[in-house]
Structure formats: C-alpha cells, structure tokens
Predict the structure.
Amino acid sequence: MLKIIFYLKAGKVNKKGESPIFARITYNQKSTTMATGKSILKERWLFTNNLRNVLKIEKEKVLKNSLDLLQLNIEKKFNEMTKQSLEVSLQLLKNEFTGKTKTIVKAKEVSILEVIDKYNKYFEKKVVAGERSEASLQKYERSKELLITFMKKQYKIEDITSNEISSAFIYNLESFLKYESDYKGKIGIKNNSVVKYMRMYKTCCRHSIKMGVIDKNPFNLYDGKLNIKDAVFLSQQELDRIENKKFSIERLEKVKDIFLFSCYTGYAPVDALNLTSSN
C-alpha cells in the first residue's frame, strides 16, 4: 500500500525564516523523499498540527490545498504505473515529479522481445556461417514463443521492457514453464529444459548489454540449477543385443542404425541425422 506523509525539514531555514516541506513516499517497506517546493514557519507547522487542524490563515489554506493536490497526483501516477508495469519503482515515481523521467524512459525503451529478436538475428548469421546448428536456433525461437504465451496468460500483456522485469516475473515464468506450458499437447517442461530456456533469456540480454542496447541483465536474478544425473552406459553385450535385433518396420530399423552409429562414433543423434552420403 502506498503511503505519503509530509514533514518539515526544520534544520533548513530560508530568508523568511521558513523551513521546506518534504514528502516521504513509502511502498512495500521501501521509501524515498522529495521536496515539495513549499515552505512554512516551524511554529505554524507545529501549531496547526502539520496543517491538519482547521486553518484560518488564507496562505496556509492555499498551502494545504497544494499539498493535497500533490498527494493526489502522486497517488494517481502510482495507479497508472501499477496498471502499465509489473513492479513500481519509487525512484521512477519520484522522477515523474522532479523532471528526470526522460533519462529513465530512454533506458526503458527496449522490450524483452526486441532483445530476443536481436539475438536470434545474430544467431541466425552464425547458423548460416556454419558455426551453430539450425536446431539450436529453433530452441531460441521456441523460447520466445513460450515467453509470449506466458506474458499473455499471466499478465495479459503483449510485451514488457527489460528494465521492468522483476524477480517475481522471472520466478513466475519459471513456474509457468515447469507446470503450465503446453507444447504439442504435453503440459509442463522438466527442470533441466526449463533451466536451459532461462539461460537462453539471460544469453539474449547479455548480448544486448554488449551491444549497448540495455544496461543490466534482469535474468541475473535467476539461480536455477541443472539436475545432474549419473550417465548410464550400455555394455558391449547390450549393444550387441540391440544390433542383432531385427525390426519389421523400416523406420525402426533406421532409428536403431542411427542410435548405434551415435554410440560407436560419439556423434549426437541430431548431428548423425544431418549426415549425407557424401560425408
């Protein structure tokens, strides 16, 4: 809940003997202060109980109305920001009233989908050059599709700027991938695949930082880890049994041959699949 109180900085006094009035804005156990541009005599501030009592002096009535209007505008701007973003920054809220918004907006212009698109285009060049595989590019494109689905379902939004991504957003995304994502009728993704997707988002942001597009990597907040499983190796006897097994379906025979080829050569199945007769 947003809380705004006005207080007097009695340690400072202007030529008229008045002290400046400041506003303290508190939200989610965090607070910031800002000058209101208004001032009053300390004696009058105390006598009127911080302008809460019934006021008789016209100047103090005008001052009270000005502070009430400022509070109303802060609350209004806060409500607008909560509708537009996922996490309200008190600094950004303060900047709206101190004329520093432009510098903040400039840093917030790039959306997370733009960040991913920039990296995918860069990755596509590496695929064309033969440095990376088409299958890896498809995984990055799939990660984008999952993120779009998550934002629409969880937050009813089409996109979000990278600076607005909070820790809550990241861990809600992880939860969505694990338990709610739908791919070809299958619900949920296993932990190791989820971690790899999250690392893809981090890689995309890291690339944009190097290119000077964004200033920080929101996915550095993610600390998910892969589940390390002990590899189970087939014995020569087990490989022989597979090799001698005959399948009546030609497709299964090809699968068997590719599997055995991968076992004996160390080729990944996807690499073996891409081999041609000329190889």
